Every structure is written in structure tokens, then in C-alpha cells.
Amino acid sequence: MQSPADASALGMSVDLATVKKIASLARLAVTDGEAEALVPELNNILGFVEQLGNVDVSGVEPMTAVIPNHLRLRQDAVTDGNVREKVLANAPQAEHGFFAVPKVIE
Amino acid sequence: MSDVTNLTVAEIRDGFRAGEFTAREVAEGFNANVAAAKALNAFIVETPEKALAAADAADAARAAGDLKPLSGVPIGMKDLFCTAGVQTTAASHMLEGFVPTYESTVSQKLWDAGAGMLGKLNLDQFAMGSSNETSFFGNVISPWKRGSGDNATLAPGGSSGGSSSAISARLCPAATGTDTGGSIRQPAAFTGIAGIKPTYGRCSRWGVVAFASSLDQAGPMARTVRDNAILLEAMSGFDVKDSTSLDLPVPQWEAGLSGNLKGKKIGIPKEYRVDGMPQEIDALWEQGIAWLKDAGAEIVNVSLPHTEYALPAYYIIAPAEASSNLARYDGVRYGLRDLPDGAGLQDMYAATRAAGFGPEVKRRIMIGTYVLSAGFYDAYYTQAQKVRALIARDFDRAFAECDILLTPTAPSAAFALGEKQADPLAMYLNDVFTVPASLAGLPAMSVPAGLDSQGLPLGLQLIGRALDEQGVLNAALAIEERAAFSARPERWW
Questions:
Q1: Strands B298-302 and B265-269
Q2: Does A39 touch chain B (CB under 8 A)?
């Protein structure tokens, strides 16, 4: 992991192999042509956000909540349920009360 | 009877109560305007029958003496709010045909308050865009035209472009919007209407298709400040189903409206004078300062030193959250499924997402995935969240010296469709004045303040302390009273 103060990750640019790897992590099928087009587009945007490396953030905690608010806890009680048909109503493929997907084990 | 579709929300509500017209007449008037405005492409789904049903219920309620706050008022619903039984798409192919079995909290509150639905409004796909050119269902067109005789098709702003276009064209008196980095305020400015993004947590996010959860906020859009106050009251309130919902009572913003700013200090942040900003926008800002002085306010100069870093921080944080939120679209539980012949599960995910998302959405998912990936997380995401903390601190310090900030809403008037589409960065720069308040979760509003030399609307932005929607609304009202903005697009559609 890069340390927060280490801006060396900033300033790096992505190449075709990186774009393909990111697309695979994001589960986005891309053609070679699309991946090639994304290289300059992403580098443009990454070049733009790179200026954040110039900000002195020493002693600053990263923001985790915009408005001071505490996460609530609730009673550990059933408040919902018995809505299987509703849950499955928009499934591309539902069978026997389940979501159906292609075979994952040969 | 004069045309009811020229009336504001307050005028419809009060005129209906006074018996000047029926709710059915109002709904029929707006339904007719919606049906005749296909050229604007503001709606993805029209629901005239829903508007009429709510109107008939309102007429019955009036006869029974059982009126609700929005009885008789039909509105448009941005197609990012899930509506039970009515297709909800986020303007994406991914959710084409998705019919929710549940209702978003905000839309439910509006129906409970007596409002009726005219239809689901077009937007930028997954609310990602500033011009409404990323919708799978086609561009929304602004009803405005340049006065120079050039017939360019103009952007209604984005992402709430269906909302802004429809309101300024009198297809609905008010609509919902959502604002992640300016998606209520910038389209409001582009079309000569008003819109407010409340404090983060005021409006429940439950049932709103998620883009960037730490930034997304719902809010109203309408022609007047009063109408915004009325709508916001109906939309706000604590919701156990949203963990970031604020457990606070909803103030009576309409009753609290006052354009008298005696004793208030208005801060002018010098960092918002950006290079290359049109002189007209600077002049309008000066005019706004004079109006607020006239309303009794004292003007003070303040500094928000990290302003220039707001946009780069936003374009790390918002895509990062989007890439995480949009991971849910996998072709399994709802939405599109693309299953190539012989494909396995992983191939199905990738094919589905490639087919279901548009180019801007993919671009942001890619950026988000990259900045969150191992080895880059701290350098990009953590750094951006630290800068975000500094931006919030800037506002805290400024609000030690003033009550409300006044800035332009956008660095230009509406641009033509296609003008900025080739360069994502040029498009992102449109949000330069609206993004900082979003990063800090502060209430902010755009109010129409004048026209540029081409006859196009320009807006001014008011930013307040957290929870001070009243201060924002009141300063906006002071401007509205003095700007007396009455321009409207000439009907060509």
C-alpha cells in the first residue's frame, strides 16, 4: 500500500494492460477498441485529479461522515419478510422460488 | 379561467382550496401540456391516469373538508425514484423494464401529502452528467433558445434535466430532483427556475437509485422559492430505512419565509472568481450582492482556500462510490441480463454490464475501480477524503464570519447539445461552483437572477450552514423579490 503522504502513485498513467485489468475487476466486457479508447480518456481524468497531491493534508483525518451523525442500532427483531414473490418479480430468470444463474460448477 | 398551467404550486394549492378551479382541471391542463411536448423528451414514462386519480381524490377530499398540504398539485418525478408499479430506469438500458414493487420514501411522502404524478422524468444515466446527453432514452431538450436567431438545441442541464426542462416549459409546476454534485442547482440555473439541495440527510435516500451515497440528496425544483419551501417540507423527514437520515423535526420553511435580511451577513468567497468566467456572470454576481444589501444584509469577503481542489476530489470520491454502488447490477436479481451462448457466470456479469451501462457510466466505474484498487486506494481515495475534510473546514471557518454564501451557480449559461460531449473534463468543469457544498453536505440553492446577452437564464447560488435551509431560502427569496425574473421560453415545441 502507498502511504498517504506518498504521492508517487499519483502521476502514474494507465496503459492498455491496466485498462483491461480494471475492466476485468469491474466486470465490464470491453473490446480491444474500447479499451484503447479508454486509455487516453482515463489518463486525462487521472491527470486532472493528480493536483490533489499538492495539498498539504498532514494531520488531517479523512472525512467519513458529512454531517455529524451516529449510526443507529435497532432492536434485533424481524420487521420485514414473506415477500418472496416481490423480491423475485424483476429477476431475469427465477425458478422454484430462487434466482437462476448459469451453471457455475461443471 | 386563465391557463392553470401558468400557476405556481402555491397558487394551485390556494386557488384549488378557494374553489377557483377543480383539481381535475389542473391535472387535465398539465396532462395536455405533457402530451404536446414530446419534442422536449422530458418524460420517460407519462402517467396521466395517476395525475387524474390523485386529482379526483383531491376533489373528493375538498368536498369532504379533508385537504392535505399538496392536494390538487400534480408534479413530475425524476426517474431515479422508485415508484411502485411504474417503470423506474435511472435513464439506463440496465433498468429498462424494471418495475419496482416498492415506493421510495420521498415519493411516498409526496403522494401522502396529496400530490399526483404526471410521469417519470428523463435524466442523465444514473444521474451522471451535466447536460442530459447520457440518457439511454435520448437527450432532453431545453425549451430555451438563444435570442440571436441561432436555432441551436440547448442543454437543460443535468442530471435533473427532465425536471428542469419540464418545469420551465410548464409541463409540471414542480418536480423532484436529486443532487450529487450540482444536479438540481445547475439545471435549475440553465432553465430559469429554482431548486434546492437540502442538508445531507434531510431527505431519505431509500428507494432512490444510488449513485454516490455520501453525496446524493433529493430536493425539489420549481419556479419560485416559496414552491421549493412547500415541496421540501413534504419531502423531508426522518426515515428508519436510511441509516444516514437525520432524526430531526422538519421545520416549517414556508411559514418561516422572509426576504428581510437585516442582521444577516452574506459572505462572498473570492475563490469563486475563476479565470475565464464570462463578464456577464461576474456582473450578475455583483448585482446579487447589491440586492442582498438592499434587503438589509451586510456583505463580508470570505475565503474558501481549498475550492480549486473540490472538483478533483469529487471526481475521485463520486466515481469510487459509484463503482461500488453499481456493482449490484449483475444480471441476477433485476434489470438486464446478457447471457452469451455457453457463457458462465463471470462472462454473464461482464456481458450484462457492458450492454447495460452507457459510456459515461462505464468511464466512472472504471475510474472508481482504479482509485479503489490495491496500491492506489490511499494515494487517491484517502487523499481525496482528507481534502474533502479541508473543504468542509473551509466552510466552517467562513460561517464563523457570515451566515450565507453568495456565488454564481454555474460558470456559463446553457450550452448547446454536443458542444462539450467530446471532452468529459470540460463537462465536469460545469460543476465547479456546486460541488464544494455537496462535498460538505451543506444546503444550497439556485435562484433565477437574470438573462445573459443571448436571452438565456442565469442563476445565483446561496449556500448555508448545515440545517439552515431557512437561511438559504430567505436569502434566495430576497434575490427573487428584486430580480423579478419573469422570462419564459417561447413555445416552439
A1: parallel
A2: no
CB of A29 less than 8 A from some CB of B: yes
- Residue A6: predicted pLDDT: 41
Q: Which domain holds residue A12?
A: 1-56
Supply the pLDDT for residue B274. Answer: 84
Between CA B76 and CA B175 the distance in angstroms is 4
pLDDT in tens, A15-46: 999 999 999 999 999 999 999 999 999 999 99
Q: Which of B366, B391, B423, B425 to mutate to test the interface with A (most CBs of A within 10 A)?
A: B366
* Nine-digit cell string for B86: 411504474
Query: Collapsing DSSP states into helix, strand and coil, what is residue B460?
Result: strand
Query: Which residues does chain A have within 8 Å of residue B101's beta carbon, measured at their own beta carbons?
Result: 83, 86-87, 89-90
Residue A85 lies in a domain: no
Cβ within 8 Å of A, B 360-419: 362-363, 365-367, 369-370, 373-380, 382-390, 392
**Is there a contact between A7 and B379 if contact means CB atoms under 8 Å apart?**
yes
Minimal Cβ distance to A57: which of B102, B350, B387 = B387
Kindly identify which residue of chain A lies nearest to residue B428, measuring between CA atoms.
Answer: A45
Q: Which residue has the higher pLDDT, A75 or B303?
A: B303
Residue contact A27–B330, C-beta within 8 A: yes
- Flag whether A82 is in a domain: no
* Residue B182 to residue A61: CA distance in whole angstroms: 25
The pLDDT-based confidence of A4 (bands split at 50, 70, 90) is very low
Helical axes A32-49 vs B359-372, angle rounded to 10°: 60
How many angstroms separate the Cα of B438 from the Cα of each of B50, B97, B178, B210, B477? Answer: 33, 31, 11, 15, 22
In a domain? residue A86:
no
- Nearest-CA distance B408 → chain A (Å): 23
Minimal Cβ distance to A99: which of B311, B332, B369 = B332
Chunk chain B into consecutive blocks of 10 residues (it has 493) and report each block's average pLDDT, rounded to whole numbers: 90 98 98 98 98 98 97 98 98 98 98 98 97 97 92 96 98 98 98 98 98 97 98 97 95 98 98 89 97 98 97 97 98 97 94 97 97 93 97 98 98 93 83 97 98 97 98 98 97 96
Specify whether the CB–CB gap between B385 and A63 falls below 8 A.
Answer: yes
CATH of the domain at A43: 1.10.20
- Grid cell 463471470 is found at B346
The whole-number pLDDT of residue A11 equals 58
Name the packing angle between helices B310-325 and B383-398 (round to 10°): 130
Interface test mutation site (partner B, options A8, A28, A105, max chain B beta carbons within 10 A)? A28
What is the count of residue pairs from A and B with beta carbons less than 8 Å apart?
Answer: 192
Furthest CA-CA distance within chain A? 58
Number of domains in chain A: 1
Q: Which domains does chain B have, with CATH numbers?
A: 4-259+433-483 (3.90.1300.10)
